[in-house]
């Protein structure tokens, strides 16, 4: 029993990610307690007011009125709780958007009704409608305006600040755009060097749903995914400990969107930010979704030293290439160097001559000639 306890303590001590899960569980427990208190409070309040209403009626205090008041209050309280459970995924942001949509729809419907009244007043000599028909037309126009305004506001919630510029109180003209990071960036150690350089200070945003996804992946059955998630959480902790970075966590979530990339795009559009990723497959999404996606691999490739044609580089030939007499080596930063005629120098370091540099989605490739290959080409040229 003592050994089992010690192993459990060691496991909790060595696992640096348990604090993330404990924080999530703690926040959920507090939320559940608050919801239970609110439901109980409103149930008691509904029963109290309905009972008070019944006993103040013409029959006064009687057990029958008290019983009816308690019953009606309990039914009202259960109805309120039922609506709350029905809209349990309706977060505060969605609620605010819906209220703003109703407000805009109200003015839209009112404008349509006033326009109809003006038309009828102008053409009163030629148009005569029964009062019932006129009321039905007005009600229909008003409901149409309210529904249309609410629907457009909800659908365009992410771009609302474009139509109403004063919604944002911070100036956006000359500011550095924020960077929303995904899990692939957090699992890449190069983000630490980038953060320590001061290039992304005060503008790095880590969504809370990304951290939750990483915590869930630490319990995955696949060893590769589990190791990647643990490495990402380690890098996340190191980023949090950087005093000059001022990294921010954001709790905004989009429950109706299941895809993580879809959530990242919506969050970036909401905050007018860019997305920083290390996933090569996400490069093409930038033009589709209207959000700029910055790939960490492209940024790293852009910072690599550029070789010019005719330069001499020393390269160790490590293996054979795809073509005959071709050898392959690698620079210190991992750039692949393909050497024509280098197949004869496997395991040796030679002085190669750069022919060209080719950019690919996976990085940069340098094509060179070995010294004897250069001489052989010159001799063949002279013979011709």
Q: Would you mind describing this structure in some detail?
A:
The structure is a single chain. This protein has 384 residues and is of the alpha/beta class. It has four domains: 16-86; 92-167, no CATH class; 179-302, Rossmann fold (3-Layer(aba) Sandwich); 312-383, OB fold (Dihydrolipoamide Acetyltransferase, E2P). It is built from 14 helices and ten strands. The strands form two sheets. Strands 3-2-1-4-5 form a five-stranded parallel beta sheet. A hairpin with a 5-residue loop joins strand 6 and strand 7. Helix 2 (18-55) runs antiparallel to helix 3, helix 4 (92-122) runs antiparallel to helix 5 and helix 9 crosses helix 10. It is elongated. The model is unreliable at 1-21, 165-174 and 377-384 (pLDDT under 50).
């Amino acid at each position: 029993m003592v050994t089992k306890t010690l192993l459990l303590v060691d496991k909790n001590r060595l696992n640096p990610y348990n604090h993330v899960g404990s924080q999530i569980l703690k926040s959920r427990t507090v939320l559940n307690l608050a919801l239970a208190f609110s439901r109980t409070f409103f149930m008691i309040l509904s029963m109290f007011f309905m009972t008070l209403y019944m006993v103040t009626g013409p029959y006064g205090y009687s057990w029958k009125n008290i019983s009816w008041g308690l019953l009606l209050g309990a039914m009202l309280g259960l109805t309120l709780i039922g609506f709350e459970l029905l809209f349990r995924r309706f977060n505060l942001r969605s609620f605010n958007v819906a209220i703003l949509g109703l407000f805009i729809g109200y003015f839209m419907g009112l404008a349509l009704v006033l326009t109809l009244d003006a038309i009828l007043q102008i053409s009163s000599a030629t148009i005569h409608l029964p009062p019932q028909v006129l009321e039905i037309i007005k009600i229909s126009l008003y409901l149409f305006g309210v529904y249309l305004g609410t629907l457009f506001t909800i659908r365009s919630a992410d771009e609302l600040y474009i139509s109403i510029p004063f919604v944002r109180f911070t100036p956006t003209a000359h500011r550095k755009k924020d960077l929303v990071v995904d899990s692939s960036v957090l699992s890449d150690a190069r983000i630490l060097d980038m953060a320590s350089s001061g290039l992304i200070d005060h503008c790095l945003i880590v969504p809370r749903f990304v951290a939750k996804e990483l915590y869930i992946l630490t319990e995955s059955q696949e060893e590769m995914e589990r190791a990647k998630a643990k490495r990402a959480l380690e890098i996340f902790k190191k980023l949090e400990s950087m005093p000059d970075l001022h990294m921010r966590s954001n709790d905004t979530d989009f429950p109706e969107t299941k895809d993580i990339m879809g959530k990242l795009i919506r969050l970036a559009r909401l905050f007018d930010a860019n997305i920083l990723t290390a996933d090569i497959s996400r490069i093409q999404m930038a033009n589709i979704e209207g959000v700029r996606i910055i790939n960490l691999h492209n940024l790293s490739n852009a910072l690599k030293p550029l070789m010019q044609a005719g330069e001499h580089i020393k390269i160790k030939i490590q293996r054979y290439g795809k073509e005959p007499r071709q050898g392959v080596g690698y620079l210190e930063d991992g750039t692949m160097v393909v050497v024509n005629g280098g197949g004869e120098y496997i395991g040796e370091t030679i002085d190669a001559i750069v022919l060209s540099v080719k950019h690919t989605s996976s990085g940069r490739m340098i094509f060179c000639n070995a010294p004897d290959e250069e001489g052989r080409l010159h001799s063949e040229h002279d013979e011709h």
